[in-house]
Amino acid sequence: MLHICFGEMENANYGPDWFKVNYDPKWLKDPFVQKIIKDVDKSEYVDGLIINSPVLGPIPPERLSGGAQTLIMIYEKPELIFDATSCGENCAKILHEIGMQKDVTINLNYLMKFDDVESLKVYIKNEERVITDMEDYIMTAVKYV
Amino acid sequence: MTGSHRVIIDTDHMKYDFTIRRNITVILGDSGSGKTTLVGYLQMYSNRGPASGVTLQSDVPCVVFTSVAGLWKPLLNEIKHSIIFIDEGQPFIFTQDFAEAVKNSDNYYVLITRRPIHNLPYSTKEIYGIRTVGRYSFPEKVYQEFYPIYETEIENSPSHNTILLYPKDPGSFSG
């Protein structure tokens, strides 16, 4: 499940920096990572370290958006906590999908809406409870961000 | 510094064209919309000027500010009469000290952050996203512009006036 801690957290990692210095090229072969790249950056993984961006042309993984890089880190390193404030709202659906696959904990410092998620289910660490209702989620989030 | 300042950043592949109107502008919006690329171009221009291959048109200097922890204040104090761009991941912008530094300087600040900055008084009208104008497909040139994230609308009713803020359609970027 996706575990969310709203507000400032001392041990939250900054995904884009982590990705740039720690990514494993093998991750790019994973169809789910390719889905992240496609959904968030509208880009296609080609081969090796080449990603084809419709805006930037052929780019290395280091030039993926901060949101895509952070999502990949959350997916590949579920034992670490990342600050998902680097992820825009276009990352929300796939972030929830990651939470459906494995237990991950993220830090959030803005109200990320999960409007495109059909069945919301997140664990809010600040209140130690599971939330499945969107209105409840929003009212809870705004208390902390 | 007062008034509006138009900024054009141009390369063979991409052009940003926007106007900064107030001393604090906030950029947020979807991942992959070009926020970090914008800062990257300005950083290249800051380092090498026109030799970078980036063309910058602005009537005031545009500076990308990054700082090692603890040293931001004296470094920031050295910059005058400029538009200062600060990318996300810079925790000092949320401090009261930064709010004081902004208040006491004549610079304009463009802050890339989704996290609200409670210490700074900025207008919802000056919160922007970045979108691509028209169709795009590399290597055709891509044109990027700022669009206001929130539209304001005053709703009049017999009992009270309410200002509504709602997200504006980001337009042509997605797709």
Main features:
heterodimer; A: 145 residues; 5-stranded mixed β-sheet; 3-stranded antiparallel β-sheet; 33% helix; globular; B: 9-stranded mixed β-sheet; two-stranded antiparallel sheet; 3 helices; 34% strand
Describe the structure concisely.
The complex is a heterodimer of chains A (145) and B (175). Chain A has 145 residues and is of the alpha/beta class.
Description of the molecule:
The complex is a heterodimer of chains A (145) and B (175). Helices cover 33% and strands 20% of the residues of chain A. The radius of gyration of chain A is 15 Å and the shape is globular. Chain A has a five-stranded mixed beta sheet with strand order 5-6-1-7-8. At the A-B interface, α3 of A face loops of B.
Overall structural class of chain A, as computed from helix and strand content, comes to alpha/beta
**Which stretches of chain B of 5+ consecutive residues score pLDDT under 50?**
153-166, 169-175
Distance between the termini of chain A: 21 Å
Distance between the termini of chain B: 38 Å
Integer tally of domains of chain B: 1
Estimated radius of gyration of chain B: 17 Å
Q: Kindly report the average pLDDT value of chain B.
A: 86
Rg of chain A (CA only): 15 Å
Order of helices and strands of chain B: EEEHEEHEHEEEEE
Number of helices of chain B: 3
**Beta-strand percentage range of chain B:** 25-35%
Basic shape of chain A? globular
The strand line-up of the biggest sheet of chain A is 5-6-1-7-8
The largest inter-chain interface, given as chain pair and residues per side, is:
A-B, 26 and 24 residues
Q: Strand tally of chain B, please?
A: 11
Topology readout:
The complex is a heterodimer of chains A (about 140) and B (about 180).
Chain A: E1 2-6, H1 15-22, H2 31-41, E2 44-47, E3 50-53, E4 57-59, H3 66-76, E5 82-83, H4 92-101, E6 104-108, E7 122-124, E8 129-131, H5 134-141
Parallel strand pairs in A: 1-6, 1-7, 5-6
Antiparallel strand pairs in A: 2-3, 3-4, 7-8
Helix pairs in contact in A: 1-3, 2-3
Chain B: E1 5-10, E2 14-20, E3 24-27, H1 35-48, E4 55-57, E5 62-64, H2 72-77, E6 83-86, H3 96-103, E7 108-112, E8 127-133, E9 142-148, E10 150-156, E11 161-167
Parallel strand pairs in B: 2-9, 3-7, 3-8, 5-6, 6-7
Antiparallel strand pairs in B: 1-2, 1-4, 8-9, 10-11
